[in-house]
Amino acid sequence: MIPSIHPQGRSTAGLLAYLYGSGRSEEHIDPHLVASFDGLAPDPGRDPGTTEADLQQLLDEPLHLLPEDTRPDKHVWHASVRSAPGDRTLTDAEWADIARRVIAATGIDPGDGAGCRWAAIRHADDHIHLIATLVREDGRKPDHHRSGKRAQNECRRIEADYGLHLVAPGDGTAAKRPTSAEQHKAKRRGRDRTAREELRETVRRAAAGTASEAEFFDGLAAAGLLIKRRTAPSGDTLGYTVALPEDRNKDGAPVHYSGSKLAPDLSLPRLRERWTGSPTRPTAAQTSTPASARRHATGAVWQAVLLIDRGDDGTVAAQLAAASEVLDALAKTSAVHTRHQLREAATAFERVGRSHIRAGRGQDRALRQAARDLVHSGPALGRGEDGATTAMLIDMTFFLATAASAWHAKKGHAQQAVAALQAAEHLRAAYQAAAAQPMAVLQQRGRRMSRSLEHQHVAALRHAIPDLAEQVLAEPGWPALAATLTDVQAAGHNPSDLLTEATGSRELGSATSISDVLVWRLRRLAQLPADPEAARLRTVRARSVPATPITMQMAPADGAHRR
Description:
By secondary structure, this protein is an alpha+beta fold. It has 22 helices and eight strands. The chain has helices spanning 12-20, 52-64, 92-106, 147-162, 180-188, 195-207, 213-222, 259-262, 268-275, 290-310, 313-333, 336-349, 365-377, 384-411, 414-447, 451-464, 469-474, 478-490, 495-504, 514-525, 532-544, 549-558, and strands spanning 2-9, 32-36, 76-82, 116-124, 127-136, 226-231, 237-243, 257-258. The protein has a five-stranded antiparallel β-sheet with strand order 1-3-5-4-2, with helices on both faces. Strands 6-7-8 form a three-stranded antiparallel β-sheet. Strand 6 (226-231) and strand 7 (237-243) form a beta hairpin. The relative contact order is 0.07.
């Protein structure tokens, strides 16, 4: 149950004309009254002998009893209450009860016998509109301060009473929802999403990895959007609007949306904050291939996970906002078989990065750089080292999403916590698609392993993580972990020591497969190729070269632990 308090207006007649009309896109169906302040108000929708002027005159009567110079300039209060997607269709009687409860909770008509005059009008299955005149029967102003918050609280109780979907309470930082007119327009055109939602996603992806205004506007143009810039006399850009070429109004003109109307963090001033101190060019060492950019991003995300666990609020807020950019960059550069789930994860996670906690400037540089490197490294293949490092990075972003959910829940940010869990579920699905091939190769190698070598790895596992060892050994992914331990050992590392390091820095309880998580952590810590076939070939080559005093002397350095 989602209430929205709209800006106050000057014309009761004008609002009634809209509510009882056909709607901007013919979306209003059977407009009619479901409740009113006295239960006796005329209904122009279903009573042929009644007009909108009759209802307007009744509602505005207390206003006209006041001296003209004391009447409020904006006397029309307007709110809407919408059921959540998936909720059952409520009856008129149920909507009438909901209207009375919301009106009372907001202070418009608190039930003291002298409240404001109001009416509830329904013109769609999923919502009602509330209209009231902001003058009480006793001539005083109503106490409707913080009416939006009051309506939210009452709607939480209504959801419980009616068995409806329990909506997480908002905090005013969410992106604006599509209007009913926008939703009907999309449905009429056979689209799954509204123009506002498509533009929000497209603009967000265009901004990912950018470091300047010029890059951003180039990205918008490359995405095929229509762009208008609002400029000062000096020529400086003050703001921008975008439109889909095919989204037109009744006059055939493109329907433009400003960045701030798409999402609070897509306004030009907020984007400029993001670019302050951003790298001006991609890091050449990390962007030679998509795989190397993904490996670098994995390290940056891992450090962000640790900061979420241990950092101050400003630092954490910065990590979460920048992590959203990393997910956008990953979604637009990954292979087809993971792209859908990654896009869904990025769409869910964009809510996670916005709260009332101010992000610390400069704290997000590593993640912003990782997003930039991902974009500039180009599209990744879905196989080989590209595919395997994609799985490695997705695995790490899953842990970031679960850490974000826990942090937001601790802060009481219900919507952000839920959104983080939704993103985590999409990341889990994307991981399964990305990891299927490299894990299958490792599984096969692990099953062909000699008994004696497997026993060594079992002993190392039990020594390093005695509390988790039996659980890991029972997992289907154990053969893949055993094969990775073989690669770790061949690279000159002590498997037990590296296992201790891989498990000691953060919990593993949220992992579906602990063995899978350890595979990627070990391969990252040991600087092994993420693609197991590449690791196997490197091992074969290493064994074919006879040891020399020089190579033996360098072995300890090669085996040094790297984070």
